[in-house]
Amino acid sequence: MKKVYRSALCACLAGFVLASCEPEDPYKRDESVVSKPDVFILCEGLWGANNADITAYKSDSMLCTGEYYSKQNGQYLGDTGQDLLYHKDHIYVSVSGSSYLAKLDLEGRELARYEFSSEEGQPRYLAAEGDYIYVTLYSGRVAKMNVSDLSVVDYAPVGMNPEDIVLYKGQLLVANSGWGYDNTVTVVDVATFDSIASITVEWNPQQMVVSGDSVYLLANGQYDEEWHCPYYVQSIDVESRTARTIANATHAVAYDGTLYLCYSATDWATYETTNTFFTYDVATATLSNQSFLKGDNVEIATNSVYMMEVNPKNGELYIGLAGNKFVSSGVIHRFEKDGTPIHRFDVQGPNPNQAAFVNYQ
Questions:
Q1: 228 half-sphere exposure, CB direction, 13 A CA radius
Q2: How far apart are alpha carbons 75 and 168 in whole angstroms?
Q3: DSSP class of 87
């Protein structure tokens, strides 16, 4: 599940062993390796199992190749695939449990790798602009790295256990989770790479979404004894350094002035899940409780949503389901921006949590 349940799941998944996958529904598949994929999907894998990988998907032909990275490199990514992005005709992926950042070509071949020391801390989330990629580190810093060879240029101090990072008007915004004990977003000036401000938000901030001039934050809030928490959505005013709560949700993406939201509530005793989908109009600051998905899809309604992504080229939505008890192979449901279903496919790996969309010229 993308960025919301990460801390809770580490504890939950540690006791599981890899189970055999459930029977797959039929879907079109490239039996070798798909050529020129335009969607890369990161499968987080199981915590401690070293089985993170990438699925490659070609949207026009609806062909996909699971375990794409391992087929191209002869090994899995490692322990806990955390984040990936597309930048300057390459794919960058952070693997938090194995503590490294990798640079791949568009055929999934690894070109460079930087292994983070225990002092630097585990890498988490990524942002990129120009010749630099920015990586949050669990040591409480952000690393500024060259996109060419992944060498470290500088570090900026932020808060405890930083998670997501976004670029906004010449600034980096960093969500400091503190594993539930921090409630700040650090503002870093990109030009000087100095931390210049701190914004107080809800406890345990995780994910941020930028829509035009607006920034939105998803924060878990504080867990109770049964791992339940409120999952706040907040609107951040970067200039005034303030935040206000607008909804409760576990996932959010933005496209063309609309915030697409999902609240995925899982009972950890039974693994029964209920999902609700709704929207927020950025211009009018209004919520709509009407689902943005068309049709009555029982699988999406009752399985844990682990990923929600939007293709910036056309607004298509990709909703990833974790798989049975977070150990079997996950699936992706792809929709038009108006919610019309396009395709369902198996990613052939556990827990799809991120997607990167390639823009072939």
A1: 8
A2: 36
A3: E
pTM of the model: 0.90
> What does the DSSP assignment read for 184-196?
EEEEEETTTTEEE
Torsional sign, CA 79, 77, 359, 137: positive
**Given this model, what pLDDT does residue 107 score?**
96
310 φ, ψ to 5°? -130, 135
Both tokens of 309, joined, read 């992504």
Domains delineated in the chain: 6-357 (2.130.10.10)
Give the least confident one: 25-29, 43-47, 128-132, 288-292.
Answer: 25-29
Instruction: Report the alpha-carbon distance of residue 331 to residue 351 in Å, rounded.
Output: 9
The CA-atom distances, in angstroms, between 323 and each of 23, 49, 115, 264 are 11, 16, 30, 14
Beta-strand relationship, 194-200 and 205-211: unpaired
H/E/C letters for each residue in 230-250?
CCEEEEEECCCCEEEEEEECC
Q: What 3-state class would DSSP assign to 42? A: strand
Pairing of strands 258-267, 251-255: antiparallel
- In this structure, which amino acid lies at residue 221? G
User: Which CA distances in Å does 107 have to 54, 115, 133?
Assistant: 11, 22, 20
How many other CB atoms sit within 10 Å of the CB of residue 360? 8
Radius of gyration of the CA atoms of the chain, in A:
19
